[in-house]
Amino acid sequence: MDKISIKSFLSIIAGKITIFLSRHLFKGGSNFPGKVALKLDKKILKKVSENYKVILVTGTNGKTTTTSMIANSLKNNGLDIITNATGANLHTGIVACFVENYKFFSKLQRYAVIEVDEANLKFITEDIVPEIITITNLFRDQLDRYGEVYTTLEKILEGIKKVPETKLILNGDESLLGGLKLKNPMYYYGFNTSINDNKEIEINADAKFCKFCKTPYSYNFITYNHLGDYYCEGCGFKRDELKYYVDNIIDLTPESSSVTINGRALNINQAGVYNIYNALCSYAISKELALEEDKIIESLEKQSSSFGRQEILSIEDKKVKIILVKNPAGFNQAIDTLCLNKESFSTAFLLNDNYADGRDVSWIWDVDFEKLKDLPIQDVFISGIRMYDMAIRLKIAGLNKNSFIIKQEYKDLTDSIINSENNTVYVLATYTAMINYRKYLHSKGYIKELW
Question: Which residues are catalytic (predicted)?
Fold first, then answer.
């Protein structure tokens, strides 16, 4: 056994026991075991992460899916890895993940692919020096907690500055991540081809002005929101050179995307431009870790959706796809995916305002629901704590109010979905609504694994 203090030993044992009890008695508890372990040893993370090469994934959207893609790529290359697959990305949840996987008699070198909340990165890099940190993007999200995107960036940089030797893999199409004055080695990924002819930034985009001279950005092309090949006509600031890039869009469907990355053709089993970014980020990190390219591509093409990230379920005879939506940028991407449908379908909108969702739901007025009014949508199911706010927003957007089916209880919502004439239903849910609805579906046997 490695040399370990009594305090650390007791912390690990207490954490492991709490994890066991939480899983078997309460069907959850991904953060509480970490609180227990930290109560006994504030520096336990440093001990339990000793034998790991760590990759940290942070940013506003795409953390969970990107983390899963990277983890699967490492597995497909035969490497031993751990990951916080359920998205427990706070300090306590990450501690719990390492404690659960800690082996007293092992000195085996392993990899850890860890999703990290933006505001919690500084706590993780206090005890861990990662091999790689990646930042996916920066959008307005939970304004009551993070503030504006510039505040979120500062929170992330506070953590990065503690580990100047760590390699950074950054989204080059994210203007907020360009021109960073950091000591770290930095490499960028992004799009070298346009999706459409759009060069006009949305009125509600999150970072429209040059971070140096405040001149409005110009674009050679925009992928979505404020992401794209940007440049400033005021001071000359422009996108950094891309090392990893999408160079061709072959096909976009409601189920998948076909693209080429650095000249290699790839079919991504999740729809939406945002999932192309997630796959590109995973590819970039896998290449930086010197993994075998054929196995990287193979892993990405086999990537399946889970835990509310375009997760596909069968509820009786209905094909139900659950899509997590938590801010205007992500919601608009989900809507763009729905717009690819040519056949009729039904939708369900679940809006909560718990702490993890953000108390302020006014952000739904920045979502382009107007795109939905001309789509072949049969039924519009609405639920969640703030279901009437959602109903009003959809009515103002021009959706047919006669198609609205408002149900507060998950049982009534599910019965209505089952009784719908349409066999395809998209469930767009905020974070706690997604979590709670999945728990209900698990209790009824529609989901086999809750976590």
Answer: 360
